[in-house]
Each structure stands twice: as C-alpha cells, then as structure tokens.
Amino acid sequence: MKPRQVALLAMDLDGTLLRSDKTVSDYTLSVLERCRKRGIRLAVATARPIRTAEDCLPGLCWDGAVFHSGAVIRYPGGETERRGIPAPTARRLLDDLTRALPRAALSVEMGERHYANFDPTAIWPGLAYAFTDFSDLPEDCPADKILIRASTLEEIRQVERYLPPELHILLSENTVGMILRRDATKLEGVRRLAERYGLPLERVAAFGDDYGDIPLLRACGVGVAVENGLAEVKA
Questions:
Q1: The whole model's pTM is what?
Q2: Three-class SS string for the chain?
Q3: Mind listing the pLDDT tens digit of every residue in the chain (235 residues)?
Q4: Per-residue CA distances from 177 to 70, 148, 212 (Å)
C-alpha cells in the first residue's frame, strides 16, 4: 500500500503515542498536524478508560477513539457505543474468581469508576478507585472490563477456565489480564470507526506495542509495531 492511500491513523497510547512520562512529544504532535492537513483522520485505540485517556491526549481534533480495548467506542460528535459485560455476568464472574483464586488482585471498571480489592496505584499511579469486596457494586451497571493482576500467559490461561464463552482475556503490559466481551476488541472498534467514514481497513494505518494490538496490526492496510513493542507484536 502506498502511504498516500492511508486515510485514518489508529494509535495506541501507552508505549506507543505516549512517552514514558505519559506526554506526547512536540515532534509527534507536528507529524500529526501534518497528517491532518493532508486530510488523514486521527483516532486512538487504547486500553485506557475515557477519563484517563482524555487527560493525556494532546490538543488535537480527534476523529474518534476506542477505549477499554474495544469495550467503548467514541464516534465523531460524541456518540458513544458500549460493549460491556452485563452486570449479572460480571458479578457472577467476580464471585467465581474470588472463590477459586482467593489471593487474586481483582478490579473492575463500571460506570467510569474503578473498583478494586487491592491497591491498584502500584500499577497505575494516581488512579482514583474504590476499595471493595465487590458486594457493593452498582446493581444494573455493565462492566466495561474486569482486570486481574497477571504477568505471564500461563497465568492468563489459568483464568480462562472460569470465563463464560462470551468473554475473553488479554494479557496487557505483562501486568494485568483484561477480561472483556469477545466482540470488544481494538480491531472491531477501529473497524466500526472506519466504517463510519466509509473506509475499509485497507486504508487504515495502525500503531501498537502490546498483545491486544496484534489482530489490529495484522488486519489494517499498514500495521506498525513500535520499537519498544513486545517481540510477539514485532513478529
């Protein structure tokens, strides 16, 4: 594919667009501005929730965003689509995991709030959260995602046995496993954003560094694994 055919950039944030201090370099901002002047649309595809992603996004006019690794899609004009885990399913799974893995560090994103049975600021410094045993979660609020502290794919496979078939789990940053609906993926989120603009994935260039980025990088017309990305992503 020739670069002139690219009409949409889909960029991961942590480890990709953002530097280690969670800022965007002036050089990167200048490149994005040049892309916009050439008519290329800009979107982000991140595991972050809306509230923490928007805090670190540069002051550009974004043309859409995928949050929670695909569980939330923000379209132009502010329209938001959520693909959350139904509240009864989320509560049942948290109960199952708590019983089966009593030492597990678990948390859940519901209604733009983070609930955890441990101190998650060791992973995400400055994160606002509510400490809980999950018995006091909102009754009717779907979960954008459930997280469990994990550092290897083997640990992820141990958790998979407790998941209902409509859910899947991804290892993120070799730090946590993210449990989401099967149709909540970065690839599906970016596909739907591209469709909104009448674009096939062949005209999307995607950038990423982690396991959850691999299907997106493979499916888009241009897939870029950044230099600091995992070896599996580069491969």
A1: 0.92
A2: CCHHHCCEEEECHHHHHCCCCCCCCHHHHHHHHHHHHCCCEEEEECCCCHHHHHHHCCCCCCCCEEEHHHCEEECHHHCEEECCECHHHHHHHHHHHHHHCCCCCEEEEECCEEEECCCHHHCCCCCCCEECCCCCCCCCCCEEEEEEECCCHHHHHHHHCCCCCCEEEEEECCCEEEEEECCCCHHHHHHHHHHHCCCCHHHEEEEECCHHHHHHHHHCCEEEECCCCCHHHHC
A3: 444 589 999 999 999 999 999 999 999 999 999 999 999 999 999 999 999 998 888 778 899 999 999 999 999 888 999 999 999 999 999 999 999 999 999 999 999 999 999 999 999 999 999 999 999 999 899 999 999 999 998 999 999 999 999 999 999 988 999 999 999 999 999 999 999 999 999 999 999 999 999 999 999 999 999 999 999 999 9
A4: 15, 5, 11
Question: Are 15 and 35 contacting, i.e. CB atoms less than 8 angstroms apart?
Answer: no
Terminus-to-terminus CA distance in the chain, angstroms?
20
The C-alpha atoms of residue 43 and residue 190 are separated, in whole angstroms, by 8
